[in-house]
Design a protein that fits this description.
A: mainly alpha; 20 helices; globular; B: 308 residues; Rossmann fold; 2 domains; ten-stranded mixed β-sheet; 10 strands; 19% strand
């Protein structure tokens, strides 16, 4: 058993990681530090807004009531703490990547595989959830513009009374096609999307506030603190992506200063927008109206204004911005699997690159098929909760990683250090645990089974095929 | 055989003539310089069209005279003025009539000095020419006795790419030049909002590079089996965040040519430049040969059976 444990906790040497990504010294060295505070903040805002706010209220309000506003604040605070921890770990491991790479370099192979299981939820499952939300807004837009809606049979999951959510499946297929052709979102596209999303949400707040009715807020927290934290668990989904700021560390000017400010700024912007939207929504519509509401923001706006055009505009904005989010999320998923494949823990199928398109085609198709199945057949609330728990656990591991690394490698140069150590990472861990604890038991159980499946895969396949074992690269088993 | 130079009647002409001389000397072929003028219209009342026609004929003759001065006396060269409604058609007719093996053109003045830029004639021919097309960078010049010393072939490790390499190897061997097989690993920027770091694409690019290096080795083995060998063999991969960087990365010499193939989207007997080839060509600092797929097949077969 001892040698097996030793293998399971072997760490991937940082030099090997650096050598793998740098190609014969061609551009493998330092990336130019070109990103300043403002673009970095925009990366954070762009990666975060749009994943959840457009459809999460109809899941969260029935759980918390109007006090859902506090759920946003709690989820935002926890997301901010973890993002700071993420930034330290990212700066300590001088190769950029996802939390999978950081965990592999600092905590060992088996932890990295656990994190990978979480990331499959954070990316793959959130891609499915986002695509389902997209299909709701697409139907809203079609209904408003042409008086035609895709029949329930083809736009609802089996649980929602349909057969398959076809628009969501088509969206994912389109994204996969673009990725196979080698499309990638540029900084300009991100900037345009940020403006679009903010404009749409600001429009919601400005128009929606005319429908303010304090009576709707009378019973502010019908389900008490439990309701608020339970909703925070669902809402955490809306903060997925804030960690993108941390992974850009290598290209950030003066990261020690820029990084925390950008994270906090992005968090403030995102949380303010979310709270404003949530407050206006719960004030404009009685809480009973949220349950099962589709394309929620557009529907509320139409009821408030009494005309269909604001809903149409909002739906159009949501469709464009959610599309870009889906594209980026699927992209991230394929590249994470690619990295795991290169480390030998997945079959080489995942790391084959098509000679013509220069993209990992097999990998992309497989991801699209799986995400498409999830989006086509599962309801959004389940997908959102699975994403939240996956992200929370990944963040939890990262926060623990910061503490572990401070003890095991105190002298490692770090581009960025968490302010208020050790309080910040401990608070981050506690915050994650608190929110996880309030998720539905079924979510926690499914998550446990999923991680177990991935670990079984690791102990039957990964541990034997890992390139660290094969001796391709010297392992660090100290 | 003949090397045909399409001569424009402006400041671009010397580049094409220099390139034609370089190729004719390297291949030991005759040089044919051709300029195309529009045919006369039916005579009009004012006789203005006749004056215009006179002007065209005069300018064509002047262009020919200037070109004649650029051709060294030791090279056999002929000069013609063709009449055709369309310059590309006129050039192809002349090429067929004289059995030309290559058609040489200069770059558009809209391009950057030292880079290849397609003008309207080149653009048309890049999608229809039945014979290999050579495009010189804008402002191309070379010494009077220069010859081709190295041919770099752009290799994409896709179907039919091996054939192009063998064909170009045969040509390089014929002119006594070295062969370089070049592939270009262009790494796009990773979208930072994806949260997978700024180097996610590096991993994909390095995997692609490993694959393409294996393919390059295999195709070089094929070349080594040819009866006549180029004077040197080499394989390189250029890295960059865009095509310009990747192409610059491998370094270029005087007396070098770049050969690219035709897209499989086009008909087999004609040049049909693909999206990637077109990017490569536009960033090339050296003259570019674009080979139709049919010609690549024929040349590859000839190289394999060449015994003398």
């Amino acid at each position: 058993m001892a040698p097996m444990m030793q293998q399971a906790f072997r760490r991937k040497p940082v030099e090997v990681m650096a050598a793998e990504t740098g190609i014969d010294g061609h551009g493998g060295g330092q990336l130019a530090r070109t990103i300043g505070l403002f673009p970095l903040t925009m990366i954070g805002v762009g990666a975060t807004i749009g994943t959840g706010i457009f459809f999460i209220l109809s899941e969260a309000v029935p759980v918390a009531g109007p006090a859902v506003v506090w759920s946003f604040v709690i989820a935002g605070a926890v997301a901010g703490l973890t993002a700071l921890c993420y930034a330290e770990l990212a700066s300590a491991v001088p190769v950029s990547g996802s939390s999978y790479s950081y965990a592999y370099a600092t905590l060992g192979e088996v932890v990295a595989m656990g994190v990978a299981a979480c990331l499959l939820l954070e990316y793959g499952v959130s891609g499915a959830a986002v695509a389902v939300g997209w299909s709701q807004y697409l139907n809203q837009l079609l209904g408003n513009l042409f008086g035609f809606e895709i029949p329930e049979l083809l736009s609802q999951s089996p649980e929602g009374g349909g057969l398959i959510n076809l628009p969501a499946v088509v969206l994912i297929a389109l994204c996969a096609l673009l990725l196979i052709r080698g499309a990638s979102e540029s900084a300009t596209v991100n900037a345009v999307m940020v403006v679009l999303k903010l404009a749409v949400l600001v429009m919601f707040v400005v128009l929606g506030i005319t429908g303010w009715n304090s009576d709707n807020l009378a019973d502010f927290a019908p389900y008490g603190v439990t309701g608020v934290t339970g909703a925070a668990g669902i809402i955490f989904f809306a903060y997925v992506g804030l960690d993108a700021v941390s992974t850009a560390g290598e290209e950030v000017k003066n990261p020690r200063r820029t990084m925390p400010i950008a994270i906090v700024l992005a968090l403030l912007i995102v949380t303010s927008v979310y709270v404003a939207v949530a407050l206006v929504a719960v004030a404009a519509q009685p809480q009973a109206g949220f349950e099962g509401q589709e394309a929620g923001l557009a529907a509320i706006l139409e009821n408030v204004v009494g005309a269909s055009w604001p809903g149409t505009v909002l739906a159009a904005g949501a469709i464009v911005s959610i599309f870009s989010v889906t594209l980026v999320v699927i992209y991230g998923q394929t590249r994470i699997l690619f990295a795991i494949g290169r480390d030998g823990m997945l079959p080489s199928f995942f790391q084959q690159v098509n000679a013509r398109t220069r993209t990992p085609v097999n990998n992309t198709i497989l991801v699209a098929v799986v995400v498409g199945l999830l989006a086509g057949f599962l309801p959004i609330n389940f997908l959102a909760e699975m994403t939240s728990i996956g992200t929370l656990v990944a963040f939890l591991v990262v926060s623990i990683g910061v503490i572990v690394l401070r003890r095991t490698a105190p002298d490692l140069p770090r581009g960025f250090r968490v302010p208020g150590y050790p309080v910040t990472p401990i608070l981050s861990v506690l915050g994650c645990l608190w929110i996880i604890n309030n998720l539905r038991p079924i979510t926690i159980a499914v998550f446990g089974i999923w991680v177990a499946v991935v670990l079984v895969w690791y102990f039957t396949y990964g541990i034997r095929h890992s390139r660290l074992r094969a001796g391709d690269v010297p392992g660090d088993v100290s | 055989m003949t090397v045909l130079v399409g001569l424009s009647r402006d400041e671009r002409a010397p580049a094409a003539v220099h390139l034609g001389v370089l190729l004719a000397r390297s291949l030991d072929d005759d040089l044919l310089v051709c300029t195309v003028v529009p045919p006369p219209w039916p005579p009009g009342m004012g006789r203005v069209d006749a004056e215009y026609q006179d002007y065209l004929d005069r300018s064509a003759q002047e262009a020919i005279e200037r070109a004649r001065e650029l051709v060294p006396p030791d090279r056999p060269a002929a000069f013609v003025v063709a009449r055709a409604r369309s310059t590309p058609v006129g050039l192809l007719d002349v090429a067929q009539e004289h059995g030309a093996r290559l058609l040489v053109l200069g770059s558009s003045t809209a391009g950057v000095l030292g880079r290849v830029a397609f003008g309207s004639v080149a653009d048309r021919l890049l999608h229809t020419s039945p014979l290999p097309l050579v495009l010189g960078p804008r402002g191309f010049r070379c010494r009077r006795d220069a010859t081709v010393r190295r041919v770099t072939v752009a290799y994409g490790a896709t179907d039919g790419a091996g054939e192009l390499v063998v064909a170009v190897a045969g040509m390089a061997a014929r002119v006594g030049a070295a062969l370089r097989v070049a592939s270009f690993a262009v790494r796009p920027h990773t979208p930072l909002t994806a949260g997978v770091g700024s180097r996610a694409e590096d991993a994909v690019a390095s995997e692609w590079t490993a694959d393409v290096e294996r393919a390059q080795c295999a195709v070089l083995k094929e070349v080594e089996r040819l009866p006549r060998q180029p004077s040197g063999l080499e394989a390189v991969v250029g890295h960059g965040t865009d095509w310009a960087g990747a192409i610059e990365d491998i370094g270029w010499d005087d007396g070098e040519l770049l050969a690219v193939g035709s897209s499989t989207a086009g008909p087999i007997e004609r040049v049909f430049i693909g999206s990637r080839s077109s990017r490569i060509v536009r960033h090339s600092p050296v003259p570019v040969v674009v080979v139709p797929r049919g010609a690549a097949q024929a040349l590859a077969e000839r190289a394999e059976n060449d015994v003398g």
